[in-house]
Amino acid sequence: MQRTAGVVLILIGGMIAVSLMTWLRERSGRRVADAAAAVAGVLVAAGGLLAVGDANIWSWVLASLVLGLGAVAQRRALLAPGGPFRT
Questions:
Q1: What pTM was computed for the model?
Q2: By the 8 A CB rule, do 16 and 36 touch?
Q3: Mean local confidence (pLDDT), 65-84
Q4: Is 53 within 8 Å of 2 (Cβ atoms)?
Q5: How far is CA 65 from CA 25, 41, 86, 87, in A?
């Protein structure tokens, strides 16, 4: 049950990330896109930790923090005016 929930969370986070790269990029502002990227990162972190099963509280805190902030940084770097996915 935990592994299935973890996979579902990872898939939802991945779908949010893909939507940020496609249709949500043109339809949202910077803050909305940053929030969506952070949510996608946290969902992937939570899904990964649920799939693994045996994680302590620090794993939950650090994984969520690192992947949430990392997703925002990656979105800004890739979609910046000089980035590879600029429009």
A1: 0.85
A2: yes
A3: 84
A4: yes
A5: 23, 9, 26, 29
